[in-house]
Amino acid sequence: MSDIITMVAPVNIAVIKYWGKRNEELILPLNDSVSATLDTNVMCAKTSVCVSPNFLEDEIWLNGVKESFSNERMQNCLREIKVRATVEKSVDDVFLSWKIHVCSENNFPTAAGLASSAAGYACLVSALAKVYKIKSDVSSIARLGSGSACRSVYGGFVRWHSGVKIDGSDSIAVQIADKSHWPEMHALILVVGDTKKKISSTKGMRISTKTSDLFQYRIQNCVPKRTEDICEAILAKDFVKFGEITMKDSNQFHAICLDSYPPITYMNDISNKIIELIHKYNNFHGEIKVAYTFDAGPNACLYLLQNEVPKILPLIQHIFPSSNPDTFVTGLPTHCEMINTNLLELFAQSNQKDLVKYVIHTKVGDGPAEVTDGSHLLDESGWPI
Ligand code: DP6
């Protein structure tokens, strides 16, 4: 039996959204996208993998439930890992023939638009790469699990190049800057709903690609310039520019969802209330201090610099009161400053509690890492603990 390898992998939240594929099987996108990778100490997927001649079949357990390994995307990842191991001659044929056990869990809600599949597949592929001793870039393999997963293979700020080749070999993620480049970049995730999303991203982008006219416009006229500009903003640590592009791109992505036929709505009234809050807040300060972005769900991800966190958090708590104020903010430690009274006057307190269920405070972090404290999810014989 092989050693048990356990890895953690991060969530990433895009600031230039990936939406639309040029090849569904190979998961090749129609546009480049850009994201920040978030700290695994706050949110992560954790995966243990081992191979053994004693296993009768490939088996996987996800969040405590045995799932089928026949899932096409999972099969594609495993197959490509083995192809790569063969090309790199990193393990022998006998080792390649052994069956595999995988046990994985997320420490945050699955399928709530919180990029859980990205962290999950990045973790699976990174752990497999370690077991099969693969040295080359594995972002193109993680991509086969879920497109956005390729960006979670690296830390810091990451660009997924759509590539032009038919075989997808140039559709890879590349790090723009590591986490130490802009350590002040924090994120607040406002969890509005943690139930499973209505329409999966895969299905949603298929509908948009086929039916939205605005979609074609976005790909041709907006994304290329925005991508270059936001990469520049990241390298120059220009938050105002970063924030403006982030918000505009999120808004355009959701406009495309509405322009799809039938229309797709991922955001809800609470999401819109959050957008209103951020614009009022930025207007009050005369410049962009906080930027929102929404994926395929109603939860908001706010990007902001560290010194802004104690200023906006009490305002969020004021507008979205919680019945559990002590546990409302999780993740990194936080403190709150007094809310500026002039600012407070702009906002009415909501009388309905728990519209925002909780807030996750996190920051930009590293890519996947091996867990070395022995806290595996598989026992010594390779079965779930
Ligand atoms: C809105 O990566 O989940 O989060 O490739 O079909 O698995 P598939 O889709 P997925 O799409 C993510 C879409 C998004 C935007 C983004 O993360 O760039």
From TrEMBL:
EC numbers for this chain: 4.1.1.33
Top-level taxon: Eukaryota
Keyword Lipid biosynthesis: yes
Keyword vocabulary terms for this entry: ATP-binding, Cholesterol biosynthesis, Cholesterol metabolism, Lipid biosynthesis, Lipid metabolism, Lyase, Nucleotide-binding, Steroid biosynthesis, Steroid metabolism, Sterol biosynthesis, Sterol metabolism
Reactions it catalyzes: (R)-5-diphosphomevalonate + ATP = isopentenyl diphosphate + ADP + phosphate + CO2
Pfam families listed in its UniProt record: MDD_C, MVD-like_N
Pathway: Steroid biosynthesis; cholesterol biosynthesis
Mvd1 C-terminal domain segment(s): 187-369
Domain Diphosphomevalonate decarboxylase-like N-terminal: 9-173
PANTHER family named among the record's database cross-references: DIPHOSPHOMEVALONATE DECARBOXYLASE
Protein purpose: Catalyzes the ATP dependent decarboxylation of (R)-5-diphosphomevalonate to form isopentenyl diphosphate (IPP). Functions in the mevalonate (MVA) pathway leading to isopentenyl diphosphate (IPP), a key precursor for the biosynthesis of isoprenoids and sterol synthesis.
Family: Belongs to the diphosphomevalonate decarboxylase family.
Name assigned to this protein: Diphosphomevalonate decarboxylase
Species per Swiss-Prot/TrEMBL record: Chilo suppressalis
The organism's taxonomic lineage, starting at the top: Eukaryota, Metazoa, Ecdysozoa, Arthropoda, Hexapoda
